[in-house]
Design a protein that fits this description.
Keywords: Membrane, Transmembrane, Transmembrane helix. The protein is built from 4 helices and 2 strands, in the order αββααα. The chain has 143 residues and is mainly alpha-helical. The protein has a two-stranded antiparallel ribbon.
């Protein structure tokens, strides 16, 4: 006779609970993609900020902080290790488009100054580190 009573095993979730969980995960993925688009636009807008005529590079710092937050949020809401790809893909796509000069001569992200290069490197490295951390992390306990 055991000293401690065994805890009852909860019943498996029903179909409605599984559908609701899937809907929340998809919604979280959509929110992450939209947030990534918004943050990359903000970073591009702030890449030319100057104080006293000198570039200050605030967009590189925002790229680091925003990409860490987006990667964490993607993993928490979607619940898979590959979720870091959701914010990384639109970020890289928009950065690639922003670095190409249009026929009219417009250029959003210049590669000839330190801010543009720093923003690309810090943003890419942040996503790489966050993705690598997810690969090395032990499996999460079932929810």
């Amino acid at each position: 006779m055991p000293i401690v009573d065994e805890e009852p095993v909860p019943p498996p979730p029903g179909r409605a609970a599984r559908v609701a969980d899937l809907a929340l995960r998809v919604a979280g993925g959509v929110v992450v993609v939209v947030a990534a688009v918004l943050t990359v636009v903000l970073e591009l807008l702030l890449s030319a900020v100057r104080v006293g005529g000198y570039l200050i590079g605030v967009s590189a710092l925002i790229a680091i902080g925003a990409n860490i937050a987006l990667s964490w949020f993607a993993h928490e809401t979607v619940g898979t290790r590959w979720a870091v790809v959701l914010p990384a893909l639109p970020w890289f796509a928009i950065m690639s488009v922003a670095a190409v000069r249009t026929d009219e001569g417009d250029l959003l992200l210049a590669g000839d100054n330190w801010v543009g290069l720093a923003m690309i490197v810090t943003g890419a490295m942040t996503f790489a580190v966050m993705g690598f951390r997810q690969i090395l992390a032990p499996p999460a306990p079932p929810r």
